[in-house]
Design brief:
Elements: E1 32-34, E2 44-48, E3 51-55, E4 65-73, E5 81-89, E6 94-99, E7 107-110, E8 119-124, E9 133-142, E10 149-151, E11 159-168, E12 178-179, E13 188-192, E14 194-201, E15 204-211, E16 219-223, E17 230-231, E18 236-243, E19 249-256, E20 259-263, E21 277-282, E22 290-291, E23 294-298, E24 314-317, E25 320-324, E26 343-345, E27 370-378, E28 393-396, E29 403-408, E30 412-419, E31 424-429, E32 433-435, E33 442-450, E34 455-462
Antiparallel strand pairs: 1-4, 2-3, 3-11, 4-9, 5-8, 5-11, 6-7, 6-9, 9-10, 12-27, 13-16, 14-15, 15-27, 16-23, 17-22, 18-21, 18-27, 19-20, 19-23, 24-25, 25-26, 28-29, 29-32, 30-31, 30-33, 33-34
């Protein structure tokens, strides 16, 4: 295309970006497309009418990689997102973006197939590392909504047209530090091997989370970086939930030095709960600024690298039951579920696969749920000053049609309403309501500033 879009149509990124953008107005800007096996130039790349055009060739394996090794993206400092505008004229259905030559620290995005018009996608790459990294765009075929899938086998005649690739520092999203899940998931969404839905449990609005895939790695739910962000100057998190599953590991992930890092709960995470419990997290080391927390669920490992085991011992490693078959320990970096010399995958009784069909991820509970009632980020370590008594505003009616009323224990100085793209769409000062009659149907975030200086944000639905 000759006309380049400077701003994402549906999102409002800041104007600060460094490396790129790659616009393909006059050239391919050094991009090529290899086969997964690494054959350089396996697919045809040309500049065409302001686009990077990639024509796929058969007989080159699966999962083509569109790449620029010298893209020099500074992933360690000011690049957190990559925006890509394209027309997909093929059957591939998602892209995996990662630093050149790596398979870790990637971001996935589902894309439509057989497009008749250009579509714009934004990928969160905050997990990327490197001061000057290249970019690989792996072309895959989606099989499930979470973005995992199978290989895309190139077909002659199929192609993709890329209008631009733009590295970005941040997106303009509302700051939200309190999540109550009264009506929606409030921006928390499936990240990998999970399902996250809004649900009522014990008369409470909750975020209902299930592990969905038997695997050796954890299930994760995350705050979408395209919807909202948590302010990193809040150094503690308080999460109230009921874990009705038998999964025994619960972690909170956030960025430390730009790298996604795990924080353990201070209290012991309990399974098969009959009531709600609050877990506190010390986040004093995480970065100030935009944070997109991840909730991480799995089964605790019982295997210890320094322990002495005998034949027949059963441990849990990577959500998987493993039985010792040699009397020897596993040697680092091997772990039981990958060490076929000393360990065999089994079921909870110790019966070895495949006779009983034991599988990797067999220790995970894929049936029962975790119900998250609230998540609060603040600067209070304990829970004495946190909880339902301090959720100091309520909204009614919700859903709203004409006027949204706010009940508050403190005087309100300002009300601001944002859509989920970060645009302020309504406001009112020194009042307890705001007119929402002109808003379209959907979910919005209301930000309430109180006289005592506190700021509370909640989602509501406009009918």
């Amino acid at each position: 295309m000759n006309t380049k879009i400077t701003y994402l149509f549906l999102l409002l990124p800041l104007l600060t970006f460094a490396q790129g953008p790659f616009n393909f107005d006059t050239s391919t800007e050094g991009f090529s497309c290899n086969s997964t096996g690494g054959a350089a130039g396996a697919h045809t790349v040309t500049q065409s009418a302001g686009d990077l055009r990639v024509d796929f060739v058969t007989g080159q394996g699966n999962n083509p990689i569109i790449k620029k090794e010298d893209a020099a993206i500074n992933a360690d400092s000011n690049i957190n997102f990559i925006e890509i505008r394209l027309k997909n004229l093929s059957a591939m259905s998602y892209l995996r973006l990662c630093p050149s030559g790596t398979t870790a620290n990637y971001g996935n995005v589902l894309i439509t197939t057989s497009d008749t018009e250009y579509k714009t996608y934004t990928v969160d790459v905050t997990a990327w590392t490197g001061a000057a990294v290249g970019i690989d765009i792996l072309c895959k075929k989606n099989t499930v909504a979470s973005g995992s899938g199978q290989g895309y086998i190139p077909v002659a005649g199929e192609s993709i047209l890329i209008d631009y690739i733009k590295p970005l520092a941040n997106l303009v999203t509302p700051e939200v530090n309190v999540f109550n899940f009264d009506a929606t998931t409030e921006g928390f969404t499936d990240l990998t091997r999970s399902a996250a839905d809004q649900a009522t449990e014990s008369l409470r609005g909750t975020l209902k989370i299930n592990c969905t895939t038997a695997a050796s790695t954890n299930a994760k739910v995350a705050l979408s970086s395209l919807v909202a962000h948590v302010e990193g100057t809040n150094k503690y998190a308080h999460i109230t939930l009921k874990n009705t599953s038998t999964n025994t590991l619960f972690l909170l992930n956030g960025k430390v030095g730009g790298v996604v890092t795990t924080f353990n709960p201070i209290q012991t995470y309990t399974p098969s709960d009959t009531d709600y419990k609050t877990y506190d997290f010390d986040l004093t080391t995480w970065d100030s600024g935009y944070q997109f927390p991840e909730l991480n669920f799995a089964v605790k490992n019982t295997w210890l690298e320094t322990a002495t085991y005998v034949i027949g011992d059963v441990v849990i490693s990577g959500n998987t039951y493993c039985k010792n078959i040699s009397g020897a320990n596993s040697v680092s970096p091997a772990v039981p579920h990958t060490d076929t010399t000393n360990w065999a995958i089994c079921d909870v009784t110790g019966a070895i696969a495949p006779a009983v069909g034991a599988i990797v991820g067999g220790a995970l509970d894929l049936t029962n749920s975790v119900y998250v009632d609230s998540i609060v980020f603040n600067n209070t370590l304990g829970t004495a000053d946190f909880g339902y008594a301090n959720n100091t505003i309520s909204l009614y009616p919700n859903p709203a049609q004409e006027v949204l009323n706010i009940s508050s224990s403190n005087s309100i100085t300002k009300i601001e309403v944002y859509d989920l793209l970060g645009k302020k769409v309504a406001s009112n000062d020194n009042a307890s309501n705001v007119n929402v009659s002109d808003l379209g149907k959907g979910a919005y975030i209301v930000k309430v500033v109180q006289e005592n200086g506190s700021v509370i944000a909640k989602q509501f639905i406009k009918e």
